[in-house]
Each structure stands twice: as structure tokens, then as C-alpha cells.
Amino acid sequence: MESYQAVGPPDGESPGERGQSYGRHSWGQSGITSSPALSTSSITYNDRLQVANEEPKRLSREQMFIMVSTASLNFSSMVCYSILGPFFPREAEKKGVSSTIVGFIFGCFALFNFLTSLIMGKYLVQIGAKFMFIAGMFVSGCVTILFGFLDKAPDGPIFIGLCFLVRAMDAIGFAAAATASFSILINAFPQNVATVMGILEIFTGLGLVLGPPIGGFLYQSFGYEIPFIALGSVMLLMMPLNMFILPNYNSIPKKDSFLKLIVLPKVAILCLNIFGLSSSIAFLDPTMSLFVLEKFKLPAGYVGLVFLALALPYSLSSPLLGFLSDKKPRLRKWLLIIGAFLTTLCYIFLGPAPILHIESQLWLFILMLVLNGFALAMTAIPIYPEAINCA
């Protein structure tokens, strides 16, 4: 199976010209491989790091534009993703949808995101990183608006089918944009991937932080449709900005097997970490709002604020953890281990588990969400640079 290698300067510039603006060596000559599913490369991450260390420390104008574009994607997509939490499970119940099906509706996003990322990574060279980035934002924004009209659909199977269809299309759009953004980032910031990703995770966290309260407020004030229409429109309005500031990139294909990478023991373990991380987050989406509403009798607007307890510590701790991952690579495995342990501990007390014989209380629930947000950041941030190093 073909993989890809997104390398090379923006269109119209030679590697030598780009090298003059970035230092004695060109990042376009460093042979950087990128994919959310991870592609193989003949040059290791440490080799790229040694070349990139000779580049100047200040961000270039192009690098700043790339960060702005990626930050806008992270923020807008996570807001659109997270607004469902406070009110959609209850709305789905009114449509005759069981909690199990609601969980599948939330989960299909991750499934199609995973499958589509592999396909997008394979054809990134032919499609182009910038076009894939913009097209992904367009699709995601449009289907977010469409999701706001699903309350008009008939109850039962038709509503459920449309929810799955629109949610899957949203995942495809996000996968396209995210695949392209990873490719661009690792080319532009080879010497500090984790630091940059940690900084950009602030905007991911902000999207997760602001999505639930914004969604809950708009839902209480204006009804079901307005949260999706408003936020989908914001994502579409960000497209012209990204079309203007995001540079074009030439990509050089690299024929190699993805399976050769995925069967490496370290990479397989990292993939299991990603699976566990994603599952632990997705587990809360369809269940937490209903639990808070029924157990603590909070209104929908306040349920959105409870989601802050998970997303805010994730957002605030990501830059520091990214900096540590870049400066102290040996800490990465310990961050992964400690993060996984803390996540397990948090879920034991989040319910809490029946074996503890502890009454569920709001303060304990929020405390465990705060610790879990920090633990998830410890697990998420070191994975990508460590996987690149393994490749």
C-alpha cells in the first residue's frame, strides 16, 4: 500500500530558496513524513531534528500563518464537535432513540475519522495539502449546519439514519482537514513538533471548553437549530482566511507499506494508547450529560459548564507537556504511563465504582474530571513525536 511523504517548499520556491529563509538547511530537504495514521520514512525524527536545530528560533511569517490556520481548525472543529454533549442526548430521547443508539451516533464520528484518515493520507499527494485542508473545513461546516435541521426529521429510523449520515460526513471533513494540517505542521516545525502541537492543543481545549456552554446557552435561548447553524457558519467564515494565509505545498510520494510501521512493537503500543485515549473521551459524550441531569438535577446550561472541568485542564497543561516532550524526550514514556494510570484512577472514582461504596457527589465528579483532563493531556501530547521517532 502506498504511503505518502509530504515534503518540499511551497509552490514556486526551490528548496535552496526556502533554505535561505529557514537557515543553512532547507526543511524541504529534511524528508519529513506525516500522517495522522503515521507513514514510514527512511529518515528518522532525530535526523530531522538535528537538521532543524540549525534553523533560527524565531517564527517566520509563514510559520505563524500555519499556526493560525491550524489553530482555527482545531478551535472551530472542536466547538462544533462538543456542542452536542449538553442537549443532544435528551433531544434524541424525545425522538425515540435509546441511549445505546445515541452512543453509536457519537461513536461513528471516531470510526469514520479513523477510516477516512487512512484514505486521505494515501491520496494527500494527489489532492494537495491546502486543498484538502480547505475542503475538509467546508464539508465539516456544511454538515454542522445540516445537523441543526435534523429535529425536523420524522421520529425513529429516519432520524437515526440521518444522524449517522451527517455525523459520518462531519468526521470525513474533519479527517481531511486534520490529515492535511499534520502534514503541514511537521514540515514547518520539525525541531519542536510536540511543543507546537501542545500550543495548538490550547485551541483544541478551548473548543472543547467553549462548545458545551455555548451550545447549552444557545439551546436554552433559541432552540435546537441555532447552535449548529451559528457554529457551522463560523467555520465556513474561517475558510477565506485560511485560503489566503495558508501556503501551498508540494508533496513527494513515498512508496512504502503502512503495515511495516504499524507492526513495530513501539508503534503498536502507541496505537493502543491512542485507542484507549479516544475511547475514554468518547465514553463520556453520550452519557455524562444525562448522568449530570438526572443525578444532580442541573439545567442544560449548567451541564455545559460541567464539561469545562474536563477540557480546561487539558487545554492549559498541553503547552507545558509539549515543551517537556520536546526538551526531555526520555520523559515521554513516563508521561504516557502516569497519564494512563491517572485516567484509570479517575474513572474508578468518577462514577464512582460500586465496589468503593461511595455516594456520587458533584464536587467529587468535577474533581475527577479535572484530574482526568490533565491525565489525558499527559497521554495525548507525547504520542505523536514519539511515534515519528519510532518511524
Descriptive notes:
- The structure is a single chain.
- This protein is an all-alpha fold and 391 residues long.
- The protein has two domains: 190 residues, Growth Hormone, Chain: A; 133 residues, no CATH class.
- Helix content is 72%, strand content 2%.
- The chain is built from 17 helices and two strands.
- Strands 1-2 form a two-stranded antiparallel ribbon.
- It is globular.
Mean pLDDT: 76
Number of strands: 2
Annotation field: number of helices: 17
CATH superfamily of the largest domain: MFS general substrate transporter like domains
Question: Termini distance?
Answer: 16 Å
Element string (H = helix, E = strand) = EHHHHHHHHHHEHHHHHHH
| Radius of gyration, whole Å | 21 Å
Helix share bin: over 70%
The CATH architecture term of the largest domain is Up-down Bundle
Helix vs. strand class: mainly alpha
Q: Report the biggest beta sheet as strand number plus sense, adding barrel if it closes.
A: 2 strands, antiparallel
Strand order of the largest sheet: 1-2
Uncertain ranges: 1-56
Summarize it.
This protein has 391 residues and is mainly alpha-helical.
